[in-house]
Amino acid sequence: MNPYPAIRKVFQGVPSRPQMFRMFDRHLQRPNRWGDDATPLYDGEWFEILPPLWICGSMFAMREFLTGSVTSVFFALRIDEAIRYFHGYCDLSEKASVETMRLPIIERENRPVRVLTRAERLEHIWSSTADDFRGYADERWPEASRGKRTVMIYGGKDGTVLKLLEGLSDDEIAAKLPVQLRHLPSPIAA
User: Fold this and answer.
1) 137-141-145 Cα angle (round to 5)
2) How far is CA 69 from the centre of its chain?
3) Which pLDDT score, from 0 to 100, does residue 160 have?
4) Mean pLDDT throughout 61-74?
5) What phi, psi does 129 have (nearest 5°)?
6) Is 175 within 8 Å of 153 (Cβ atoms)?
7) What domain of life (predicted)?
């Protein structure tokens, strides 16, 4: 039995950008988060957001800026005869930033063979690693490394080791990737 009304407003006023993203997962701390069906919790929830900053065909930009003039831009793009949806962050102070983002998405997603560059592999590892196991090099690191991204890896007999993301070996990268991505060719080999 759902104790909540079917359709309900869950925030009064217009949330700020951080509040908006918190609202997307309002029930984050619920017990048994991954083991139960949260449909009754989320179903029917709604809240107001600022209108898009602009809408141009199948693209629109959010009015809630992440920082400075950078905001979310959503794309509906035709890839291989199917409409697919993408999100990117664009600096709207640069007039061509949205088109500069759109074209590489189309180019990347239209590659005939599924391949991953080293940079794409590292970005996937960074994106999929839990916050507790990734970070940025601080004052404990040599000056040249400070501010660079770090990830925790299993170092065999040495246990877990904190390493610079960019310094991962091919074997360490393969170990951190999901099985379905480990053996994809690089563009050079394709």
Assistant:
1) 65
2) 19
3) 92
4) 87
5) -80, 135
6) yes
7) Bacteria
Q: How far is CA 82 from CA 73, 102, 187, in A?
A: 20, 16, 24
pLDDT in tens, 132-164: 999 999 999 999 999 999 999 988 888 899 999
pLDDT in the model for residue 145:
95
- CA–CA separation, 168 vs 9, rounded Å? 46
Query: Which of these, 43, 75, 81, lies nearest to 56 by C-alpha position?
Result: 75
What DSSP character marks residue 139?
T
Q: Give dist(CA 46, CA 20) in Å, integer.
A: 11
Give which of 121, 17, 118, 115 is closest to 71, Cα–Cα: 17
Query: Please, which residues bridge with residue 76 across strands?
Result: 85
Residue with tokens 């925790």: 152
Decide: helix, strand or coil at residue 89. strand
Residue 3 has pLDDT above 60, yes or no: no
Amino acid at 115: V
Q: Please tell me whether residue 83 adopts helix, strand or coil conformation.
A: strand
Model confidence, pTM: 0.70
Backbone angles phi, psi at 85, to 5 degrees: -120, 140
Query: Using CB atoms within 10 A of its CB, is residue 59 exposed (0-12), middle (13-18) or buried (19+)?
Result: buried
Tokens of 84: 């697919």
